[in-house]
Amino acid sequence: MSELFREATPEERREYYTKEWSAKKLPDFIVETLEEREFGFDHTGEGPNDRKNAFSDIRDLEDYVKATSPYAIFSSVALYEDPREMEGWIGAELVFDIDAKDLPLRRCLHIHPSGQVCPLCLEDAKELARDTLVILKEDFGFEEVHVVYSGRGYHIRILDDWALDLDHKAREKILTYVSAAEEITFEDLQSRRIMLSSGYFRVFRLRFGYFIRRINENHLRNIGLRKNQIESLLEKREELYEGFVKNAFLTAFPQGIGQKGILKLFALSSTFSKAYFDGKVTIDVKRILRVPSSLHSKVGFVTTYIGQEEDKLEKFDPFKDAVPEFRRGEVREAYRQWTEEHGESI
Ligand SMILES: [Zn+2]
Q: Key word Nucleotidyltransferase present in the record (predicted)?
């Protein structure tokens, strides 16, 4: 049986790096800052032990990669005056990491345990990445926002000058905003502040939209909703999505839920949305991240640069656009088998 995700062998790594990969595949935002980045290599699959590498010429990086066919390649999100010593910190990209294997709320909860991924949670991660991209551009005005398929999810990497300068406290604040982690109160509901369409309520509604389409009976029972409330909520979830999320009509909530019930739903949505991102990646200004175009050997996919626009992300399909040559036939077959088995879930 073909496997959708599997570890690449050392021979396959060699084939990928010698035949398919070249430094030309690196995105411009890496090439333009090459000299200021620290590079880390994992040669064995045990983690990036070969650290503190720096390259002043792209050809040297290419030679090193082609000679060693590493298990994984990373580079710093920070730019340094002296990357070899990780000294003279100039700034660091602002990064959001959405990992499908860690999503607490996903449509495939009944298909596989957490820690694994499938086409459905990768699709869910893509929706979260798209919403995040919109928030970062519209609410913060970031202009240099790059989206990368990491192999098991999505990285959003921001290189605007003012983003590079942010300290970890400021990054934490942006993370709180983007996660819609602020509490919605009774007063917010009463004053109808919730109906404002800009600012915080955009992020809140986007996260609530993701939430309302994926929650199940158990989630709702756990927050103390009654059987009839649960039934009408699940029945009307698409209506609620259209009415509340798209148009901010609080009246979209079914009769009988009440303000208390609505607040409980909002609170549960926030609990989930806080866990959509790996917050450590956003706050840490000395992190290393997978280099776009490198092979994610553990899952057998290519870490792929997607671009800066929403529609590029929308069109991106990891099962077509992030498959190394040596797995083309295998992934096509495995994907076909997966949809045959779980097609009704899509
Ligand atoms: Zn899944």
A: yes
284 is catalytic: no
CATH fold of the domain at 1-167+285-345: DNA primase, PRIM domain (3.90.920)
Q: Where along the chain do the CATH 3.90.920.10 domains lie?
A: 1-167+285-345
pLDDT tens per residue, range 182-241: 777 777 766 655 554 445 578 888 899 999 999 999 999 999 999 999 999 999 999 988
pTM of the model: 0.94
Eight-state DSSP code of residue 105: S
97 an active-site residue? yes
85-88: Cβ within 8 A, 24+ apart = 85/52, 86/38, 86/52, 86/286
Contact 59, 252 (CB under 8 A): no
Active site residue 99: yes
Please tell me the distance between residue 122's alpha carbon and the centre of ligand 1 in angstroms.
Answer: 7
